[in-house]
Predict the structure.
Amino acid sequence: MRLLVCGCLAALSLAATATAAGLDCRTAARPGACFDVRGVLRPANGSPALRIRATNGRTLGVVGGDGDPDTPALPADLRAAMQPPTPGSLLSVRGKFRVCPLAPERARHMRPVCIAAASDLAALPRTGP
């Protein structure tokens, strides 16, 4: 029994280390299959700092892409689309996102995801100050 418990703990530790090594979003340990969603990716106050507001009204919290080596990075084309002409903050981007869940679905909770790919990207004009 102890051998089984030790084996399970070693496997979990290895999966956590692989995720913490900043590996590709598609290879990170996750509780479900990746899926496509259309919506707007925008910066937000709080955690996570990036969120996707899907066309179906669901909000997904994007983990990674903030330069932290312990989280998956955003795809290069998406990062380029979010850069404003003048440095400072990020732009909102509309598009189709391939996301991979990082936690199980919970009713009425923002689900954390990482972005594996993005397409049909269009930067939205900045509003406000």
